[in-house]
Automatic annotation (TrEMBL), chain B:
Residues 89-227 form the Oxidoreductase molybdopterin-binding domain. It holds the Pfam family Oxidored_molyb. This is Molybdopterin-binding protein. It comes from the Bacteria. InterPro entries: OxRdtase_Mopterin-bd_dom, OxRdtase_Mopterin-bd_sf, TAT_signal. It comes from Dyella jiangningensis.
Length: 310, 251
């Protein structure tokens, strides 16, 4: 429709040329894509080997000590009247039977055994703390170095300031954004290229609260690092508290990944995956009259590196 | 619904299972653990940088002491030499100090108590994940090293123990000279104001302020100063190190 139609307040004519078309734009630059996939590998292996490490003493406590009877969470086992192993998960004073998954589960040989998390969810599968630690600490370094590269890159290219740091407008739109997310309503076209306030807050939280927090809580578990970090360790409640927080943040990452994957699923798996693999992302665009002011579409002639959201 | 749930469950178990199985195969190779183990050197260097060798482990108050200090690993050595000492309440115990030293020695409990004594309330962190706080009294290892005179070419202190983990595999451990000379590195003979109980390593055990539990050898029989531990045990510097645990267990 033309500007005249709008001015006259006329009902728009049936669209003819106004069919939506797709435009492919370069969205994620190579360093971001590489760091994203390194992160996928590192986080996955750290999580699975972390569960192996947790299995060596599958209980959490608050404070500096791990006294009997003060568990805030524990995965254990007991025998029923018939002598069968029953898996038991205790959270505070609440007890749940979790046979088959937590506390008691089948090993590779199919025989039920006492173990915190099941063997299909730990790296390595069998109870093997020494090897779990090797995987965990190796990928902890991968995760930390990758994270430092990301923050350095994001600051240098202003990705952090421009795309992730919320603006005043973002904050004002938070109510609408929450409602939209709850209704699974997602922006299309140009708008989809800009992170909304919830995305910005989620990414910032995951990077700077979860990422930094889980590394610090990991360091807090090191007796050597405690010699210099003990004020921080005491501030979070103690060494066992740090261990509990490390565990909780790990599950926070899992929650984030599940939501992230869900959003990818409902906003177009193929397009999102292509965006994060090749960098190219397609958006729906509505052809507009060149004369209508204020509607700038990304110009194909603009080189990728100069477009927004690089 | 049930079908979808079981499908999701199978997908999850299947995907995790394949990933875990792949990692297990890497864990079984020669190169896999070696590559993954490279992180240990980084841990050691970076921690030494961030926490200088003079940094002290936090010391706690009497109120922080654990109601029970759980023993772990061996709790009752079965070797005849140890049993004989235990039968006489460790009165005949002598700590043998040898290797690259100027004056090898056999130190009785009284000899040890005449050297530099320290008392510390520190936290013990097990590699498994639990922690306990205890009050330890003992002789500073640095005082023992000064007493015997260490050859400048010696790099490690080896601790040979009375207890055997498997048959004929005595427990042993090693630390470097810097850690050995740290003021919080003790040969402890008392826990919570009582003689060290047998389950906790009587009559003498190693206490290190800034290392994990398995480094803190119990039931000490002999100390040996060496320039390398390549030819001792499986050559990794300790019983658990020979089982794949890190020699520098900084974390």
């Amino acid at each position: 429709m033309s500007a005249e139609d709008l001015d006259a307040g006329m009902a728009p004519p049936m669209p003819m040329a106004v069919t939506a078309s797709r435009k492919v734009i370069y969205r994620h630059p190579l360093p971001i894509r590489i760091m994203h996939w390194i992160n996928v590998v590192a986080l996955t292996l750290m999580f699975l080997s972390g569960l192996q490490i947790f299995n060596a003493h599958p209980s959490l406590y608050w404070g500096n000590r791990s006294d009997d009877g003060t568990e805030i969470l524990s995965l254990g086992a007991r025998q029923d009247a018939a002598g069968n192993l029953v898996g038991v998960t205790r959270i505070g004073r609440h007890e749940f039977t979790t046979t088959g998954v937590l506390g008691v589960s089948k090993g590779r040989d199919g025989v039920p055994q006492v173990r915190g998390f099941p063997s299909w969810l730990t790296v390595p599968g069998p109870q093997w703390l020494a090897m779990g630690r090797r995987w965990h600490f190796f990928f902890a370094w991968v995760f930390v170095l990758n994270g430092l590269c990301y923050v350095g890159y994001a600051l240098a290219t202003r990705h952090l300031q421009r795309d992730l740091w919320p603006t005043g407008t973002d904050w004002r739109g938070i109510g609408r954004s929450i409602v939209d997310h709850l209704r699974f309503k997602h922006p299309h076209g140009e708008e989809a290229l800009r992170y909304n306030i919830l995305q910005r807050l989620a990414y910032l939280t995951v990077i700077f609260v979860f990422g930094v927090g889980i590394v610090l809580m990991g360091l807090a578990m090191s007796p050597r690092m405690d010699a210099v970090l003990s004020p921080m360790v005491e501030a979070v409640g103690g060494r066992q508290s740090a261990r509990a927080i490390h565990f909780i943040i790990a599950w926070g990452f899992v929650a984030f990944v599940l939501i992230h994957l869900f959003e990818v699923l409902i906003t177009g798996v193929f397009n999102q995956l292509r965006g994060m693999i090749t960098g190219y992302y397609a958006i729906d665009v509505t052809p507009v009259d060149e004369d209508v002011p204020g509607q700038d579409l990304p110009n194909e002639s603009v080189p990728p590196e100069e477009r927004p959201h690089d | 619904m049930t079908d979808r749930r079981s499908f999701l469950h199978m997908t999850l178990v299947g995907a995790a299972g394949i990933l875990v199985a792949g990692c297990d195969r890497i864990s079984q190779t020669m190169w896999g653990p070696d590559v993954l183990g490279k992180a240990e050197g980084l841990n050691r260097r970076v921690q030494a940088l961030l926490s200088p060798s003079s940094s002290m482990a936090k010391e706690y108050t009497e109120a922080d002491i654990s109601p029970t200090f759980h023993p772990n690993g061996t709790t009752m050595p079965t070797t005849p030499a140890y049993r004989a000492l235990m039968a006489n309440d460790f009165r005949d115990y002598r700590l043998q100090v040898g290797g690259m030293v100027n004056r090898p020695a056999m130190l009785s409990m009284d000899d040890l108590k005449r050297l530099d004594l320290r008392t510390q309330i520190t936290r013990h962190d097990c590699v498994e994940g639990w922690s306990a706080i205890g009050k330890w009294q003992g002789t500073a290892l640095s005082a023992v090293l000064d007493h015997v005179g260490v050859d400048p070419k010696a790099r490690y202190v080896m601790f040979h123990c009375f207890d055997e983990m498997d048959e004929d595999t005595p427990y042993y451990e090693s630390i470097d000279i810097t850690e050995a000379r740290h003021p919080q590195t003790l040969l402890a003979f008392a826990l919570n104001d009582k003689p060290l109980p047998v389950p906790n390593g009587a009559p003498l055990r190693l206490r290190i302020g800034r290392q994990l539990g398995y480094k803190q050898a119990k039931y000490l029989a002999r100390i040996e100063l060496v320039s390398s531990f390549e030819d001792i045990g499986d050559g990794q510097g300790g019983y658990w190190e020979d089982q794949g645990y890190e020699w520098y267990a900084g974390i």
